[in-house]
Amino acid sequence: MASSSPLSVSVIYSPTPRQVHEVQLALPPGSTVLQAIQASGFLELFSLPAPAQTLFGVWGRETSLAESLRENDRVEIYRVLKVDPKVARRERFAKQGSRSAGLFVKKRLGAKGGC
């Protein structure tokens, strides 16, 4: 039995770190990722590149624009990383030094040294 009630879908985009925009949408059954993104208005609001040049996902897994959505799906628009995470970690470690970074930085007063 097919349901004709609208799908409840959320579209998420984070233009910068620690800033997240979310829109709740009610879409017709059988809607695709592309239709959800167009209905969200994020393409125009944030001047994003064409959908074919951007990566998208549903619940953290990369997907195509033609993917059909299900009830309560979370569509995510991914932005391009400006810095490779490995490079950023190396730079942070070089800046902090080996004594102030890592697992055993905090020592209790009177604690024995590691073996």
Topology:
Elements lengths: L6 E10 L2 E9 L5 H8 L1 H4 L9 E4 L2 E3 L10 E5 L6 H12 L19
Parallel strand pairs: 1-5
Antiparallel strand pairs: 1-2, 3-4, 3-5
Could you tell me the strand content as a percent range? 25-35%
DSSP E strands, number = 5
Strand arrangement, major sheet = 2-1-5-3-4
What best-fitting shape do the alpha-carbon axes yield? elongated
CATH class label of the domain at 7-78: Alpha Beta
CATH topology of the domain at 7-78: Ubiquitin-like (UB roll)
**What is the fourth-level CATH superfamily of the domain at 7-78?**
Beta-grasp domain
Structural class: alpha+beta
Key phrases:
alpha+beta; elongated; Ubiquitin-like (UB roll); five-stranded mixed sheet; 115 residues
Write structural notes for this entry.
With 115 residues, this protein is α+β, with helices and mostly antiparallel strands. It has a domain at 7-78: Roll (Ubiquitin-like (UB roll)), CATH 3.10.20. The protein is built from three helices and five strands, in the order E-E-H-H-E-E-E-H. A five-stranded mixed beta sheet has the order 2-1-5-3-4, covered by helices on one side. A hairpin with a 2-residue loop joins strand 3 (55-58) and strand 4. The longest helix is centred in the C-terminal third of the chain and has 12 residues, at 85-96. It is elongated, with a radius of gyration of 21 Å. It starts with 6 loop residues before the first strand and ends in a 19-residue tail after the last helix.
